[in-house]
Design goal:
about 250 residues; mainly alpha; Arc Repressor Mutant, subunit A; three-stranded antiparallel β-sheet; PCI domain-containing protein; CSN7_helixI; cytoplasm
Length: about 250
Amino acid sequence: MPNVAELAEGPYAKYFNLLNLFAYGTYSDYLANQANLPELTPPQIQKLRHLTIVSLATKTKCIPYSTLLKELDMKNLRELEDLIIEVIYADIVHGKLDQKHSQLEVDYTIGRDIRPEDVPNIVSVLTDWCDSCETILSNVESQINKANTNKDSRNKHKTLLEQEVSNIRKILKNQAQDVEEQMATDTREVGAQPEKLIKNSPKLKEKRQKENGKLCSIHLIINPSYYYSNATWKWQILVKIIMNCQVNHALKNI
């Protein structure tokens, strides 16, 4: 503002410097330029120390106690921790005291006024950030297009598979119908054959031979003497054993 800039020269120059000190400076700047500044009251000194902690917190998230003691011109560690606790309770800085490592861990801090000479640096940082955002958006769009292309390809492949499965089912169904019709035709042809062919079939002959064998065995048990006279010596021994078994069984029943 022009009317404020006019204070830089004249009897109010010290107050103009004091305004810049509270806007951009730190407590160490006050000590270095104390001759060009008016004398500060204890509340003003305390306020400037708060702002000094804010300036340090914008540069690093872990501030060693040694740096704080130097920048705030303090000799007592207990006094320093009380000041930090006061800053935290005032919501100027959010963080915690790490007494084990003798440092202040910063999570959040308020902002301070920006020096005119810092504006180009801020613009450069924001420009880089915008370029990074555009690059990320471009990559995201390319990934979306790639995903859509893969999705279309999978859908086409799925459609082709479904068509092939449908065609195979139709072919299998037609083949099953042909087999059923052929079996029905064969059944009718077998039913129309002469009875003589059925009687002379190999399966019926084999069945008759098995039945005849069973009848012979039954006849042997019922009337073994018939085979005793006409059988070979091996069969005679077998018939004799069977006859003895029948006699013993009859004696037991008496």
